[in-house]
């Protein structure tokens, strides 16, 4: 959001822009590494990502937070994506 705001202000479109933030049903405790361990596929795909801090949110990034962050960031709810209740 910060980069978007800076860019919109730089091109003088900030006041003319409506930003909608949409979300799916929350965080997942499953990471890409979990999927690789299940079926062995996708290892080459993960090598293509640049997940350095400076590159997060840009093309070719895909950051997994993992189960610890999924539990913490899903608060105040008990569980996260993939669970019924």
UniProtKB/TrEMBL annotation:
GO terms for molecular function: arylsulfatase activity. InterPro entries: Alkaline_phosphatase_core_sf. It is an enzyme of class 3 (hydrolase). Gene3D superfamilies: Alkaline Phosphatase, subunit A. Its EC number is 3.1.6.1. Keywords: Hydrolase. This is Arylsulfatase. It comes from Novipirellula herctigrandis. The lineage of its organism: Bacteria, Pseudomonadati, Planctomycetota, Planctomycetia, Pirellulales.
